[in-house]
Amino acid sequence: MRLASLIAGLAREGVIDTRFAAKLSKRLDKEARRVSTGGAVPLDEAEQAALFGALGELDLALRQHDAASLVEANARLRETEGGAGKRRKGKKDGEKGSDA
Questions:
Q1: Is residue 68 helix, strand or coil?
Q2: Is the pLDDT of residue 59 over 70?
Q3: Is 21:12 a contact under the CB 8 Å cutoff?
Q4: In this structure, is residue 78 part of a structural domain?
Q5: What backbone torsions phi and psi does residue 71 show, to the nearest 5 degrees?
């Protein structure tokens, strides 16, 4: 649980690459499922909830960081294309849809 929370914090801060964090998350999820169902001492419901809550926090942090990166990249792309004046144009003024 602590490891998942730590990875989530590092991903939020951008300290580690989110692809690497996603691989760690997958591995932690596999191990959590093994431990929660077939471990020597099965986890009770509260422990399972805490464990999967921490993994959910990690997943959310990864998604938020990736979304923020995507928005930032899109803004940079718009800035570079803004100077070129490229825009999508609608239908030409003379063209109208056929309503026949």
A1: helix
A2: yes
A3: no
A4: yes
A5: -65, -40
Q: How many domains does one find in the chain? A: 1
pTM: 0.63
pLDDT at 54 over 50: yes
Q: Which residues, including other chains, have CB under 8 Å from residue 32's CB and lie 6 or more apart?
A: 51, 52, 55
Query: What is the Cα–Cα distance from 26 to 55, expressed in whole angstroms?
Result: 9
Cα gap 65→59, rounded to integer Å: 10
What separation, in Å, do the N-terminal and C-terminal C-alpha atoms of the chain show?
Answer: 65
Cβ density class 61-72: b for 16+ within 10 Å, e for less? bbeebeeeeeee
Does residue 40 fall inside a structural domain?
yes
